[in-house]
Design goal:
The complex is a heterodimer of chains A (about 280) and B (about 325). In chain A, about 70% of the residues lie in helices and about 0% in strands. Chain A has twelve helices and no strands. In chain A, helix 4 packs across helix 6 and helix 4 packs antiparallel against helix 8. Chain B has about 325 residues and is an alpha/beta fold. Chain B is about 35% helix and about 25% strand. A six-stranded mixed sheet of chain B has the order 6-7-8-3-9-10, with helices on both faces. In chain B, strands 2-1-4-5 form a four-stranded antiparallel sheet. In chain B, strands 12-13-11-14 form a four-stranded antiparallel sheet, with helices on both faces. In chain B, helix 5 runs parallel beside helix 6. The chains are: A mainly alpha (about 280), B alpha/beta (about 325). At the A-B interface, helix 1 and helix 5 of A face helix 2, helix 3, helix 4, helix 5 and helix 6 of B.
């Protein structure tokens, strides 16, 4: 802190270009934001470890504790693994809301909103980087599933189709979470508000049990749950049997949720300031 | 740069912003000339942060207009954003990244070339005494280091105007001192700055012009000396007991005062101070004593001294600068 550097003088003018417009800048700014989040992943491997402990625990608990008592039409491991995969990647969407709430309370959103960047890039960068992290969790989970005997009976095509559908859903949900994260006033609130509704959504579905064996009034709820569409379709792709139209319906849900909540979250973002 | 670049860096006229019943901004005018520091001084809830947020495009005013380098912040927010640097109330640094990565990231979002953002980042880290910590993750930085990095991030693209919203709030005295020195250096280098603060000494020390704001309105403006002159130059302080009759005292001393008589509890809460602005303290004390005697009021002590910005603030608002007003903290959504 010695010499005064004269290049800060205002008559030099700002060194930035005039603001950018157009699709190229959306991609560039989104990628810049995504790298902000991804850069830290290798530095905090423990975050990834903790993110995979719960799904691994679920795999072991469901397969070994419930296998004998839950009656499903196919082998229970082949039945429940797609359900646990779907639940896990969808649950991980909550990180989007938590991360945004964290940025908001720390004033980072204020700064980003004062920059001449494409505003939605903050949200796109966040959701995309969370999807990438989700892939890393998925790989760990998949290895554990293989260890306990799960196999893709539907071949590579089925494996890809089923997994892609789960990630489309998780991505759609991360926009719901983005809206939640920007609407609450603390990271803790984003965490509870992000997770709480996903428990009934994923449990009152075909993810772990056959909805036909639920109590009567719950059956229509479970059968019409979009998460049931997702697990039914992914399970069919993974196990190599006909998914009917479930895959398309599930995809339509994912696209619809993304469209609606991307608009809502972007609007919310345009008004978000720290407390 | 266009032909408007010769006008003031910041020009705001009649800014209004309401939140429900609260007038966060109630017709604020502001001018920040190039290479000057304007200090926006006011208590919590006065509207300082709301003003900064309007000027930095974060919130839209209900009415009025604001120009950065002649560019309207509402009509052309993107062009305005390209010319400002904002350091908000919280150090907006990403704890997971290193200091240098934080700087490079903001530079990239200003659409600087990667190499340019990196070089400029190193230069700022050197200047802000952060070179040793440049490649360490920010999580381990102290509060003062975070604040310095935060200000550096605002300067990465050489903005026309730097906004500092309460830059030393929450810092320990040593960090506060180092941030002050840093701002003084920037100012010496010609960085145009709008600074908000609730600390009178901070405004006194850093600002060329002080704009006093309360309840969303500008209630006074001028240099520190001009504002002190408004109080009358000197001040007499009369120390009284808590149960002394304040109305009677005010009435007795008003004829001697050159401005508003202010009565407030002392910091320890055990006595009260009556502050009487006078044009010259010399020779007034005996008159004060006589007046109080005639009114039958007992007092503990009378002292005379030069007016400070604290007195100005008290005289203008009737309350201290660090006491929140009854208004909610503004700028909430």
């Amino acid at each position: 802190m010695t010499a005064v550097i004269t290049s800060d003088r205002p008559d030099d003018g700002p060194s930035t270009n005039e603001p950018a417009t157009g699709l190229a800048w959306v991609f560039r700014d989104s990628w810049t934001e995504a790298t902000r989040h991804l850069r830290s992943v290798p530095r905090n491997p423990e975050l990834l470890v903790f993110a995979t402990i719960q799904p691994i625990m679920f795999i072991i608990l469901f397969v070994y504790v419930f296998e004998g008592s839950i009656q499903v039409p196919i082998d229970y491991v082949q039945f429940v693994i797609p359900g646990i995969f779907a639940q896990t990647v969808v649950f991980n969407s909550a990180f989007t809301g938590v991360g945004l709430a964290d940025d908001l309370t720390k004033g980072i959103i204020d700064r980003l909103r004062s920059l001449p960047m494409y505003p939605s890039a903050v949200l796109i960068g966040r959701t995309v980087s969370d999807a990438v992290r989700n892939v890393l969790t998925f790989v760990v989970m998949l290895s554990v599933a293989f260890l306990i005997g799960f196999r893709f009976e539907g071949g590579l095509g089925g494996a890809i189709a089923g997994t892609a559908l789960m990630f489309a859903f998780a991505y759609a949900f991360s926009w719901i979470q983005a809206l939640i994260g920007l609407s609450v006033r603390s990271v803790e609130a984003a965490n509870s508000a992000g997770f709480i509704w996903m428990f009934p959504l994923t449990f009152v579905s075909s993810a772990f049990v056959d909805p036909d064996r639920m109590v009567g009034w719950l059956q229509p709820v479970a059968k019409n749950n979009p998460f049931t569409l997702l697990t039914n379709a992914s399970r069919a792709y993974y196990n190599g049997y006909d998914a009917g139209n479930d895959g398309w319906y599930a995809l339509a849900w994912a696209v619809g949720i993304t469209a609606v909540f991307a608009v809502l979250a972007t609007r919310k973002f345009a008004q978000s300031t720290s407390a | 740069m266009d032909n408007t670049a010769h006008g003031p860096a910041v020009l705001a006229e009649g800014l209004r912003k309401r939140y429900g019943e609260t007038h966060a901004l109630d017709g604020v005018d502001l001018i920040v000339e190039r290479a000057k520091v304007v200090g926006l001084l006011g208590p919590n809830g006065a509207g300082k942060t709301t003003a900064v947020r309007v000027l930095t495009t974060l919130i839209r005013p209900d009415s009025g207009r604001a120009l950065i380098d002649g560019i309207d912040v509402v009509a052309e927010p993107m062009r305005a954003k390209a010319r400002i640097g904002l350091t908000g109330q919280y150090a907006a640094v990403d704890e997971r990244l290193t200091g240098h990565e934080n700087l490079e990231h903001v530079g990239r979002l200003f659409h600087m070339k990667r190499s340019e953002a990196r070089d400029r980042g190193r230069e700022l880290l050197d200047r802000f005494d952060l070179a040793d910590a440049a490649d360490r993750v920010v999580k381990g930085y102290s509060g003062g280091m975070r604040r310095r990095l935060d200000i550096a991030m605002s300067l990465i693209a050489r903005p026309s105007v730097l906004f500092l919203d309460e830059p030393t709030t929450g810092l320990d005295p040593r960090s506060r001192q180092s941030v002050w020195e840093l701002i003084e250096e920037l100012v010496a280098g010609g960085t145009t700055t709008l600074l908000t603060t609730q600390y009178l000494d901070e405004a006194d020390r850093l600002a060329d012009e002080i704009v006093v704001i309360d309840h969303g309105r500008v209630i006074a403006r001028g240099t520190s000396d001009e504002l002190k002159g408004q109080v009358g130059g000197d001040v007499l302080e009369v120390l009284i007991d808590l149960d002394a009759p304040t109305d009677q005292i005010s009435a007795a001393l008003s004829p001697l005062a050159s401005g508003r008589v202010v009565i407030a509890d002392t910091e320890d809460g055990r006595h009260r101070t009556v502050t009487v602005p006078v044009s010259k303290a010399e020779g007034v004390a005996p008159a004060v004593v006589r007046q109080l005697d005639q009114a039958g009021v007992t007092f503990i002590d009378v002292t005379g001294r030069q007016a400070t910005l604290d007195d100005v603030f008290f005289a203008l608002t009737g309350h201290g600068a660090d006491e929140p007003t009854e208004l909610e903290k503004t700028g909430k959504q």
